[in-house]
Specification:
By secondary structure, the chain is mainly α. Helix content is 81%, strand content 0%. The protein contains 9 helices and no strands. Helix 2 packs across helix 5. The protein is elongated.
Length: 225
């Protein structure tokens, strides 16, 4: 019956306060590939969305392929990447890149195609080149959707990093500690401490992006409410 009981919040907080150095080290092991992987994945997703927007006739295949790759469950992708890559870091990085690219591709595509047709026609009449249309209309118009994608990717990327560490050979990282601690009868409170820490880190990253969004999109209607 004790196995089904959650530890008291005070016990979980005590575990965090008693192991700050160890938890900080494990957090860095998880965050380094997570942040880098999310950045690379979102960059890849945006490039695909831009490519499809510029070449709609034969670019949809890229979006379909990305959707297909992103439909693969992380729990199935992680063991596969661990076999493909020699180091745990690059295996985790690959999983996070794949998991992060889809949300950005979809949102960026919607943002790139939200640009008012009247604005595009006006720029063409004024003599704007195709490059001007892309850099001065399409890309700036997609920024609100990009921030939406970033906020969506944060929990997905963190989840991918944690699950990847379940299957990795490393004995460090927040995912490994959650898996290990929850298996040990008298260490379950440590596992819950790591779960709480992951949640707090994700919330912190989300709030950071929200703060940047407010500064960058002062002009947008979403920030006027």
């Amino acid at each position: 019956m004790n196995l089904l009981q959650l530890p008291l919040p005070s016990v979980v907080l005590s575990a965090i306060l008693e192991n700050p150095v160890k938890m900080a080290g494990d957090a860095w092991v998880t965050l380094e590939p997570a942040v880098l992987g999310m950045a690379l994945g979102m960059a890849a997703g945006y490039c695909v969305a831009l490519f499809v927007t510029i070449h709609p006739g034969w670019g949809y295949g890229s979006m379909i392929l990305m959707t297909l790759v992103n439909s693969v469950p992380i729990v199935a992708l992680s063991p596969l990447m661990n076999r493909w890559f020699e180091t745990d870091f690059f295996a985790k990085l690959a999983v996070i890149v794949v998991a992060s690219s889809g949300a950005m591709a979809v949102n960026a595509y919607l943002g790139l195609n939200d640009t008012p047709k009247g604005l595009m026609d006006l720029m063409k009449i004024a003599g704007a080149s195709s490059k001007d249309l892309i850099w001065k209309a399409l890309i700036p118009g997609s920024i609100p959707r990009v921030f939406t994608a970033v906020k969506t990717v944060i929990p997905v990327g963190m989840l991918a990093a944690i699950i990847s560490e379940f299957f990795a050979g490393t004995t460090r990282g927040m995912g490994y500690m959650i898996k290990y601690s929850l298996k040990v009868g008298n260490q379950k409170y440590v596992g819950w401490a790591y779960i709480l820490a992951v949640s707090l880190i994700s919330i912190g990253l989300y709030l950071l992006v929200c703060g940047i969004e407010k500064r960058v999109l002062k002009w947008h209607v979403s920030q006027k409410i």
